[in-house]
Amino acid sequence: MTRFNGLDEFGLIAHLTARYRAALQKQEPAAGGVLVDIGDDAAVLAAVAGEELLMTTDTMVEGVHFLPETMGFADVGYKAVAASVSDIAAMGGTPRYVVLSIAIADAVSLPDLEALYDGVAAICSDARCALVGGDVVHTPGPFVITSTVLGGVPAGTAVKRSGARPGDVVFVTGTVGASGAGLALLQASGVLLPADEAAALRTCHQRPLPQVGAGQILRSCGATSLDDISDGLASELNEIARASQVRLRIDTARIPLLPALQNFARSRSEDPYEYAWYGGEDYQLVGTASPFAFARALAQCESIGVKLTQIGRVEPGDGEVVAQFPDGRIDLVEPRGYNHFK
Amino acid sequence: MTRFNGLDEFGLIAHLTARYRAALQKQEPAAGGVLVDIGDDAAVLAAVAGEELLMTTDTMVEGVHFLPETMGFADVGYKAVAASVSDIAAMGGTPRYVVLSIAIADAVSLPDLEALYDGVAAICSDARCALVGGDVVHTPGPFVITSTVLGGVPAGTAVKRSGARPGDVVFVTGTVGASGAGLALLQASGVLLPADEAAALRTCHQRPLPQVGAGQILRSCGATSLDDISDGLASELNEIARASQVRLRIDTARIPLLPALQNFARSRSEDPYEYAWYGGEDYQLVGTASPFAFARALAQCESIGVKLTQIGRVEPGDGEVVAQFPDGRIDLVEPRGYNHFK
């Protein structure tokens, strides 16, 4: 069978590994730590003295997590690894090593897979980590990709979800909701936005950049909780509130939205905040810190070009999230968001 | 939707995590190293001073890697993690932490998933490692499971495939071919073997025990190369020969076969060695060592109940494997075995 130009499983792995290496835009910063690379039974990796390890995994299924119409294979490769890198960022850590497993559907071509590994190289360059292994199998069903990322964090400093305390500031990095709006835009017909605004929303959906630098700053400044926005602000805030057993009071007018998102929602007579609360896949960070720690982190994040915005405060409570609207109305925010099997 | 007794994604993860913990037969030896467990963005894990890290991943797809008729869900959970643990064993390492991703097909029930996590608990008990995270998603296609295992090995001692030297002994642990014969038996009709022999072959296929202890002994005794038998003896020996740029001469009469395998093959008028060469999924170890190192490892492996058998020797060469038969005939062994896309 000559499905992949006659490449068998081992040939395909070698081909895609070479493709990944050629596509790397920068030196892999972790490369010095890779002692035995792709090709043996397991990768051998240097540990960093004084660090604890962070490990996380994410799976994306075609037709469930992405559609061919909204995500090219390069985007899929980028975003699959970005989702795991974002989990490392949400602990305040440094992503270092990636292993990638793909189950290849019948309709997938060699150029598709090459594009996938170009996308993986792009996120590995952006997040300064290295692909060190994986598995490549066939599936009669839809394409499935699983990314597992190993990272490090100075011992005893990982930022959990459970440390929010009354009096803390609630903050987010960047803006929220653009990824969900980008998806809606990709599925919409007609011209709804100027080209640059449309491109900005699409990029937020297809190539979300995990906030590794901001996570490290927030950790070193003493953030008390941190989570990444994969399922939407409503879901993540509820996770922090529940894990910390506090009430988070959110001032909705302070939630930072991209102007392109506001224009997009206006063009469809939608509430732009719906995308922020329930859209998900922004891969921004949301968390809490003392006012003093927040002020320090704000300045340091600004120095790396990341905007940190206070969106509320922490109060005594029992694990709930309330939204306070400009008209004075207050609502309980349910933890709904993207959720399998619901 | 009440597909899993009304559990949503988060409830399902909590339910299966509890199931895993309840099913653990022994204390997780790595549990002391788990600083932040399942439930936050990423697991936080202690590194062991003086060790390097080992990382490997394996994916199994229903209908490709296993069939409902031959593998129950508990077997699937066991074997998926065992495949990755075996890769750690093949580096001479210690498996410590597991993350597991499952893409759940429509036909899968909650009892199926509970059985899966019972199997995961069984292999984690057997291999003394801990499940520390994962992902649970829906797929419209076949069930897919991806296991990623993180292990450790004393710095600078990981056993690669590339160190075989002329004069070395070629060895295997245990017996070879029983997994492939077990699969054939599970797919056959009629009574072909006594019940105890049939059960032995089935167990070799459904619950292969990775050779972690033997791998550690072989590493500490100075084995020059090591590989685990996932694709069959022919494929793994060729990998060692090619990586080490030597010739491996195998004395076929010395390849250790389970009596049950010999009886099974005889009952079907098959060559039992075909299962050893090309069956795969034995998850035994194959490798090379100096005669002195081999003698030391032989005694130590015997003390933990693992048989080590010399099956050949290493000669100068260019990466080939030759088989020498009892009748004096010599054949080149092609690296075929289980291979996707071929």
TrEMBL record, chains A, B:
Where, in this chain's numbering, is Mg(2+) 1 bound? T57, D58, D135
The positions annotated for binding Mg(2+) 5 are D231
What residue stretches are annotated with the PurM-like C-terminal domain? 165-322
Protein EC? 2.7.4.16
Catalyses which reaction(s): thiamine phosphate + ATP = thiamine diphosphate + ADP
Instruction: Provide any one GO MF term from the record.
Output: thiamine-phosphate kinase activity
Q: Which residues bind Mg(2+) 3?
A: D41, D87, D228
Q: In which pathway does it act?
A: Cofactor biosynthesis; thiamine diphosphate biosynthesis; thiamine diphosphate from thiamine phosphate: step 1/1
Q: Which residues bind substrate?
A: H65, E281, Y338
Keywords tagged on the record: ATP-binding, Kinase, Magnesium, Metal-binding, Nucleotide-binding, Thiamine biosynthesis, Transferase
Q: Which HAMAP family match?
A: TMP_kinase (MF_02128)
Q: Could you identify this protein by its name? A: Thiamine-monophosphate kinase
**Provenance organism:** Alicyclobacillus cycloheptanicus
Gene coding for it: thiL
